[in-house]
Each structure stands twice: as structure tokens, then as C-alpha cells.
Specification:
The chain is built from 5 helices and 6 strands; from the N terminus they run E-E-E-H-E-E-H-E-H-H-H. The chain is an alpha+beta fold and about 180 residues long. The chain has one domain: Transposase IS200-like (Alpha-Beta Plaits). The strands form 2 sheets. The protein has a 4-stranded antiparallel β-sheet, sandwiched between helices. A two-stranded antiparallel sheet has the order 1-2. Helix 1 crosses helix 2. The longest helix is centred in the middle third of the chain and has 19 residues.
Length: about 180
Amino acid sequence: MRRTEPWEPKAITAPAPEGRPNESTRVAIRYDSSMSNTYCSSLFHCVFSTKERRKNIAPDVQARLWAYIGGVAREHEMKALAVGGMEDHVHILLSLSAPTSVADAMRDIKSASSRWMKETCALRDFEWQGGYGAFSIGFAQTSVTIAYIAGQQDHHRNRDFQAEFIAILEKHRIGYDPRYVWG
């Protein structure tokens, strides 16, 4: 029998469990081996509104603001897979790096974009609401979520942001008290 090095996995052939027709092969891996890198898939559909849901993200500013938000995400080692919204709110599909929390991501994006709106668009009183929604999604929902974010104009022909946000909370089975959702 060939000698295996301590770092090599060793194949062990054993009879298959009862009811299985073939032999099974297991691979033995040393317990003291470690992963050399960190791998993380953290996808979040993030939603937040302007303060008091004021409609002060003008349509002619939106594309520039969405692009700016994507740049802020990149600068903070996140990926904005989609950014979109309306005059009173933003949707972002974010892929977060392992050390980045949702709270840190939202703080960085909201503070930088608020400053950008004040300086670039001369909206001195521009503010985002204090809170946000962050809803985890699986990789399989990526394309559906991107399409949802891209279709904001269509979605809001029939319902406002408040109804949309409540629907998202309910879809994700997040309990809420209607008295405190809007501050």
C-alpha cells in the first residue's frame, strides 16, 4: 500500500449502508487542516426611504445617484448588483464581503449618498430615513430581485412605497407594529 503524506486526503472504501447497492467511498481529511481563505455569499435586498418619504430624488438625478451608490459600495468592498428606486426610496441588491455587516453597509451608503445629494444636487435639507430594510436572499433569487429593482417604475403605478415595504416585510415574515414602521 502506498504511504500517504499527512496533507493528502486518503480514500477509504467501505461497504455501502444497508439498502444501497454499491460500495461507498469516503475521503478522510486531517482534522488539523484549515481553510486558507474565507468564502462568503451574503446577498441582501436593501430598501430605504428619504426622510418623511419626501419625493426629492428627481427623475433626472436618479441614474446618477444609483451609479454613485454603486461606487460607494465598491469603495467599501461590497458589490451593488442592482440599484434603483423612485423619487422617495431606493432598492439595492448588495453582495457583502465577509467582514462587512449590513449595518455598516447601510451607514456607509446612506451617509455618502446623502452628502452627495446635498453637495451635487444642492439639496441642503436632503436626508434618508433613520432605518432601513435588509432582506437576505439566496443566490437563486438574484435575477428575480434584479428584475424587481429594475421594474420600480411599473411597480409604483399601482402602489406606493409604504404598501410595497409592508408587502416585503410580510413576504419575509418579519413581524412589525404598524405604529412604528414609519417613525
